[in-house]
Design brief:
Helix content is about 25%, strand content about 30%. By secondary structure, the chain is an alpha+beta fold. Strands 11, 12, 13, 14, 15, 16, 17, 18, 19 and 20 form a ten-stranded antiparallel β-sheet that branches. A hairpin with a 2-residue loop joins strand 8 (about 265-280) and strand 9.
Length: about 475
């Protein structure tokens, strides 16, 4: 028995000892009030030696499935019911543990939220002042991280900023930048911490398409596309199609794109996954790859080495013409580039990757930028309002290098753009642009499987749209 008791876990020993103590207490405390023996009780005062006494033994009746305070707790019974004991002990420990956790767990502070509508010419300082937030807190918030700079720049009149207070002390700030992004500033032990965060999103694949009757822009809006989607679609095919000059009535497009969802609700649009554009009976298709670039279904890059036009222009005010009459002097002066008329301040981007070989000013050219692309090509950008690059700087394709202006000898705001091949001026609109590299062979097989599925999806939805249009 001693060996068996030693094998018991300590927590079981404690539990058993508690039960035994409890039982002994019950046995020792009488259930009725104790009374002295009376004379009328027949009890022999003394047992005489040599005298035989009759003692009648009453049979013991066993009691099943019932424990009384007189039952003994023996070791074999404990071993036999160890599983039940473990369950009971675990349940007791669980309850005790939960009670301890409830007692030790700190209660979360209740945050009192206030919605503050941003006013015209508002600032963070004015918002804090209206809500009686101390200047010291403003200083701490301003040092909370780079996201605060974004918050200050993005304060838009009419937008709502949320201020969270705990016992009249600023605890949190939440400001939405868009449907998907927001800035959160919260109080820590050492001050405030600012972060720019994104909401978790899901995506759904949608389709849109239309035939162009007046303009590509109007057709895109009628198809349900946003301004950004229309511009992105134009950028995808901008290497092959001049959207200012090549679009004709009867041209058409179709596009497969992502709609983003937050908690099941629409929250903007994601990437264009596949697109098709038919212009003057010539069809172009583009499929998005994992690298974020677009390729033909055969795996050739939609990007060329150069943009066809480096600015979003209203119209061409003067074409490439070797025998043009100069609008100011009236003399015959070759026009070795294209003039793109646009509003002052319109961004001008680099037509391709390269190195700035000259960024300066002259009385004829105004502000200008010249970029070298490899050994053969040079592009020139004249009459800029402002320049954003310096001589010797490396630039990427589509990087902003300046803005449209009217500096130098000009009659109005426009960009004069030149394209040189081996030192010879060529017409930027008709020059044959070199191709970018295709997909590597290792990625081509997987890409073609995706491309085939996307082309089939484009065709299926396009046929459905045509059938619906014919019925209408």
């Amino acid at each position: 028995m001693t060996h068996l008791w030693v094998q018991f876990p300590t927590r079981h020993k404690i539990y058993i000892a508690s039960i035994i103590s409890f039982l002994m207490l019950i046995l020792l405390v009488p259930t009725e009030k104790a009374t002295a023996s009376r004379q009328n009780e027949t009890v022999p005062e003394r047992l005489q030696p040599g005298v035989r006494y009759d003692l009648s033994l009453q049979p013991v009746v066993p009691i099943e499935n019932k424990k009384t305070s007189e039952q003994r707790f023996t070791q074999p019974e404990v071993v036999a019911n160890e599983s039940a004991l473990n369950d009971e002990l675990s349940s007791t420990e669980k309850k005790v543990g939960e009670s301890l956790l409830e007692a030790s767990a700190p209660s979360l502070p209740k945050i009192d939220w206030r919605d503050e509508k941003i006013r015209r010419n508002d600032s963070l300082a004015k918002i804090f002042e209206r809500n009686s937030i101390p200047a010291k807190t403003l200083i701490e918030v301003s040092r909370s991280g780079k996201a605060v700079d974004t918050l200050v720049r993005k304060l838009i009149p009419g937008q709502v900023i949320q201020l969270g207070f705990v016992e009249d002390e600023l605890n949190q700030i939440v400001y939405p930048l868009s449907q998907l992004e927001f800035i959160e500033i919260h109080k820590t032990e050492t001050g405030y911490s600012a972060q720019q965060l994104k909401k978790q999103t899901e995506s759904e694949v949608l389709y849109a398409g239309a035939e162009i009757h007046s303009s590509f822009w109007n057709a895109g809006l009628q198809a349900g596309l946003t301004d950004n989607q229309i511009m992105n679609l134009a950028n995808i095919f901008g290497w092959d199609i001049d959207f200012a000059l090549d679009i004709r009535k009867g041209d058409s497009f179709s596009v497969v794109y992502e709609e983003l969802l937050v908690d099941g609700e629409p929250a903007g649009f994601g990437n264009i996954l596949a697109a098709e554009f038919t212009s003057q009976n010539q069809t172009f298709r583009a499929i998005r790859h994992q690298d974020g670039e677009y390729y033909t279904p055969q795996g050739n890059s939609m990007r060329k080495a150069f943009l066809r036009a480096p600015v979003n222009f209203k119209y061409i005010s003067s074409n490439f013409n070797p025998r043009r009459l100069h609008p100011v002097t009236g003399r015959v002066a070759p026009h070795r580039g294209i003039d793109y008329a646009a509003r002052t301040g319109t961004p001008v981007v680099s037509a391709g990757d390269g190195k700035v070989i000259k960024s300066g000013y002259s009385s004829l050219n105004g502000n200008y930028v010249f970029i070298q692309h490899g050994k053969e090509y040079v592009t020139k950008y004249l009459h800029l309002h402002k320049r954003y690059v310096k001589t010797g700087q490396r630039v990427k394709q589509n990087q902003k290098i300046g803005t449209v202006g009217a500096t130098g000898r000009v009659t109005g705001p426009h960009l004069h753009y030149e394209f040189l091949v081996n030192g010879v001026h060529r017409n930027p609109k008709t020059v044959k642009l070199p191709k970018a590299l295709p997909l590597p062979a290792a990625e081509l097989k997987t890409f073609k499987q995706t491309a085939n599925s996307m082309v089939a999806l484009l065709e299926r939805n396009k046929n459905t749209l045509l059938a619906k249009t014919s019925q209408d």
